[in-house]
């Protein structure tokens, strides 16, 4: 297996703390926040993360497939979650300690509850507004009521973190500090 | 096998001295601590509001405030405002548009994202939801049925309660010739359920005077429930496409009325109340274990005179208890009171059962107890209970060094081992005889003494010198426990 070559393209407006483990070909969009102790492993293929995402502590984002793993905008990956899904849309929430397998593709506005294991054996796509909850990962579809308030909350969350995190954590500077105006 | 400790409550048995622990019938005299509880109060598990017992009945055992249970996942619902209108275009959020939601408010489950608009429940105000839902609840079939039942039985209840007092006193002498219909109904129901129990008839004393046996008229329910709905249910099930359309049993059984099987018909329920438990000594009515004043999630602290938790840790090692060996063990005694106490432990002397299998053996051998337990002889103190924040350093809470150890017996094993916060760990030793068999269990008498101030002692005596001096007295309490060190003795084959 060829050695993993690190190539980071981090937007200048992204907030990436120093303690983050990055490996492989990673692109991080504008306004995205990586808390300390987050882990992003682009082992086999590259990972592209969109804008204004929040990746909390101990979250693991792994790409073990050769294809590009694309993560959209405004997603929230809570503490301890593990995501290997090859494609993630916008405004999703993966809650604490949840796991999403590489067979699942997440669209937008989905919510994976805390501790849920989304590990189907066959490939599948989660429709928009899917909610996964409960210890046995039951599913239902959210009506979408209240999404405006939730998107607003997400934006405010990200904005607050962008202001406050750099005050208390060292930020990663240096190589690969790439693009962005 | 883990070691256990059970408590002997003299109120629940006839003898104040507990029976020897190894006999088979004595397990009824000893109880684990959590079994010694009686009920005390009601509170809502969500808002932790203490509901006075009077209004519990009125509110039908549910929380009267804004606490509702999601019918889908049975978590708590929260009241949220709806999205502001014409905010569908997310790009317009970039401009300074307020995204504060407004009425109508609805119930929303944070966990599964169910909301009450699916069953058309919305509110104009976010507070006082119970009042807003009152109309719907009163029109529910179970309320109407219950009201009818109450009306039907009301005259008989009134009659029975007025004669209830006298009837109760006379019941012991079986002079009662008047059976009120409630008793008659109850006794016939019991006879129906349990075969062999005869219906209660009072000792016939000639003619019943006054012919005072009332008859309850037949009750007719409001709705005939005899299976008319089943045809539609069967039809629904036949045409089922997706299992999630059917309401699961767990979602339906908290309701007092039969519900439709459609999961789309599930409504939010008011949260049922939980009860708190206490124990009152039946002899002297003193509260032994009192739950926290404010409902704290699942905590009951032992308060006042009475039992203490004692946890036993067996440190005899993984190999088990061998006959002929000597093993140390530790007892951790926890003091729930706000005063420090002095504890004295004593092992109850056991008279071992006469062994019938040694007819020619020496009688002393038969009477030798199978094991000898050594515990610290003198009294040792256990500090008072204090909340965690009252300790300035962690050391005070988690125990300092081994000062004031009691050296008795073989060096360090017997005596006070550790003292931290309100827990004192004492060590004991058990010497197992060569011919011993069976589990190692012994009765232990625990007596503790503390100086208590008068229960009203919160007043400042300095400012009211005219009051009589309240002399704090020493109170002593004793109780028996049985300590089971868990393992069976491994006999020695020599």
UniProtKB/TrEMBL annotation, chain A:
<protein>
    <recommendedName>
        <fullName>Dynactin subunit 6</fullName>
    </recommendedName>
</protein>
<dbReference type="GO" id="GO:0007052">
    <property type="term" value="P:mitotic spindle organization"/>
</dbReference>
<comment type="function">
    <text>Part of the dynactin complex that activates the molecular motor dynein for ultra-processive transport along microtubules.</text>
</comment>
<keyword id="KW-0963">Cytoplasm</keyword>
<dbReference type="GO" id="GO:0070840">
    <property type="term" value="F:dynein complex binding"/>
</dbReference>
<comment type="similarity">
    <text>Belongs to the dynactin subunits 5/6 family. Dynactin subunit 6 subfamily.</text>
</comment>
<dbReference type="InterPro" id="IPR027777">
    <property type="entry name" value="DCTN6"/>
</dbReference>
<dbReference type="GO" id="GO:0005869">
    <property type="term" value="C:dynactin complex"/>
</dbReference>
<keyword id="KW-0206">Cytoskeleton</keyword>
<dbReference type="InterPro" id="IPR011004">
    <property type="entry name" value="Trimer_LpxA-like_sf"/>
</dbReference>
UniProtKB/TrEMBL annotation, chain B:
<keyword id="KW-1017">Isopeptide bond</keyword>
<comment type="similarity">
    <text>Belongs to the dynactin subunit 4 family.</text>
</comment>
<keyword id="KW-0206">Cytoskeleton</keyword>
<dbReference type="GO" id="GO:0001725">
    <property type="term" value="C:stress fiber"/>
</dbReference>
<keyword id="KW-0007">Acetylation</keyword>
<dbReference type="Pfam" id="PF05502">
    <property type="entry name" value="Dynactin_p62"/>
</dbReference>
<keyword id="KW-0832">Ubl conjugation</keyword>
<feature type="compositionally biased region" description="Basic and acidic residues">
    <location>
        <begin position="292"/>
        <end position="301"/>
    </location>
</feature>
<keyword id="KW-0175">Coiled coil</keyword>
<comment type="subunit">
    <text>Subunit of dynactin, a multiprotein complex part of a tripartite complex with dynein and a adapter, such as BICDL1, BICD2 or HOOK3. The dynactin complex is built around ACTR1A/ACTB filament and consists of an actin-related filament composed of a shoulder domain, a pointed end and a barbed end. Its length is defined by its flexible shoulder domain. The soulder is composed of 2 DCTN1 subunits, 4 DCTN2 and 2 DCTN3. The 4 DCNT2 (via N-terminus) bind the ACTR1A filament and act as molecular rulers to determine the length. The pointed end is important for binding dynein-dynactin cargo adapters.</text>
</comment>
<keyword id="KW-0597">Phosphoprotein</keyword>
<feature type="region of interest" description="Disordered">
    <location>
        <begin position="350"/>
        <end position="369"/>
    </location>
</feature>
<dbReference type="InterPro" id="IPR008603">
    <property type="entry name" value="DCTN4"/>
</dbReference>
<protein>
    <recommendedName>
        <fullName>Dynactin subunit 4</fullName>
    </recommendedName>
</protein>
<keyword id="KW-0963">Cytoplasm</keyword>
<feature type="region of interest" description="Disordered">
    <location>
        <begin position="292"/>
        <end position="319"/>
    </location>
</feature>
<dbReference type="GO" id="GO:0005869">
    <property type="term" value="C:dynactin complex"/>
</dbReference>
């Amino acid at each position: 297996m060829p050695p993993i070559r690190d190539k980071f393209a981090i937007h200048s407006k992204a907030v990436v703390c120093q303690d983050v483990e990055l490996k492989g070909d990673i692109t991080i969009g504008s306004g995205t926040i990586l808390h300390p102790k987050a882990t992003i492993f682009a082992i086999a293929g590259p990972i592209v993360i969109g804008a204004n995402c929040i990746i909390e502590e101990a979250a693991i984002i792994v790409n073990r497939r050769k294809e590009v793993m694309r993560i959209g905008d405004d997603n929230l990956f809570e503490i301890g979650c593990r995501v290997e899904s090859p494609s993630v849309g916008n405004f999703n929430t993966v809650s604490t300690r949840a796991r999403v397998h590489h067979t699942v593709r997440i669209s937008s506005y989905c919510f994976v509850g805390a501790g849920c294991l989304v590990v189907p054996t066959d490939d599948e796509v989660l429709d928009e507004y899917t909610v996964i909850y409960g210890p046995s990962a039951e599913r239902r579809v959210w009506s979408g009521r209240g999404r405006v308030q939730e998107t607003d909350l997400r934006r405010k969350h990200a904005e607050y973190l962008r202001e406050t995190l750099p005050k208390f954590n060292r930020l990663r500077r240096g190589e690969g500090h790439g693009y962005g105006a | 096998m883990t070691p256990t400790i059970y408590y002997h409550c003299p109120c629940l048995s006839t003898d104040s001295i507990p029976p020897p622990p190894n006999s088979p019938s004595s397990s009824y005299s000893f109880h684990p601590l959590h079994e010694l509880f009686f009920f005390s109060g009601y509170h809502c598990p969500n808002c932790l509001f203490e509901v006075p017992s009077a209004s519990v009945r009125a509110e039908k055992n549910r929380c009267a405030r804004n606490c509702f249970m999601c019918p889908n996942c049975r978590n708590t619902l929260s009241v949220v405002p709806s999205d502001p209108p014409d905010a569908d275009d997310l790009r317009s959020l970039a401009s300074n548009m307020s995204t504060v939601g407004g009425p109508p408010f609805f119930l929303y489950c944070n966990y599964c994202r169910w909301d009450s608009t699916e069953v058309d429940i919305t509110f104009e105000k976010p507070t006082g939801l119970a009042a807003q839902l009152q109309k719907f609840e009163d029109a529910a079939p179970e309320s109407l049925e219950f009201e009818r039942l109450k009306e039907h039985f009301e005259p008989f209840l009134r009659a029975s309660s007025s004669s209830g007092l006298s009837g109760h006193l006379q019941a012991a002498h079986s002079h009662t010739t008047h059976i009120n219909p409630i008793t008659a109904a109850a006794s016939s129901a019991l006879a129906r359920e349990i075969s062999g129990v005869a219906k209660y008839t009072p000792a016939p004393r000639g003619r019943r005077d006054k012919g005072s046996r009332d008859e309850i008229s037949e009750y007719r329910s409001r709705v005939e429930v005899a299976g008319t709905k089943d045809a539609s249910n069967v039809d629904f099930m036949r045409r089922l496409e997706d299992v999630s359309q059917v309401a699961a049993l767990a979602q339906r059984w908290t309701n007092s009325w039969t519900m439709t099987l459609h999961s789309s018909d599930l409504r939010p329920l008011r949260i049922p109340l939980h009860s708190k438990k206490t124990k009152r000594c039946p002899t002297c009515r003193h509260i032994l274990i009192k739950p926290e004043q404010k409902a704290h999630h699942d905590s009951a602290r032992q308060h006042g005179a009475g039992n203490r938790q004692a946890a036993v840790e067996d440190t005899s090692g993984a190999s088990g208890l061998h006959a002929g060996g000597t093993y140390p063990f530790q007892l951790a005694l926890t003091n729930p009171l706000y005063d420090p106490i002095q504890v004295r432990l004593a092992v109850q002397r056991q008279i071992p059962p006469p062994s019938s299998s040694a007819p020619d053996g020496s009688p002393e051998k038969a009477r030798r107890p199978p094991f000898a337990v050594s515990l610290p002889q003198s009294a040792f103190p256990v500090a008072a209970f204090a909340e965690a924040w009252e300790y300035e350093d962690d050391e005070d809470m988690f125990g300092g060094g081994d000062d004031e150890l009691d050296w008795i017996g073989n060096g360090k094993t017997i005596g006070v081992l550790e003292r931290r916060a309100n827990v004192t760990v004492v060590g004991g030793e058990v010497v197992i005889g060569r011919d011993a068999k069976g589990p190692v269990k012994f009765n232990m008498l625990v007596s503790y003494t503390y100086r208590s101030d008068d229960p009203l002692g919160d007043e400042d005596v300095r400012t009211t010198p005219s009051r009589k001096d309240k002399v704090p007295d020493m109170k002593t309490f004793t109780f028996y426990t049985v300590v089971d060190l868990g393992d069976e003795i491994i006999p020695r084959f020599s």
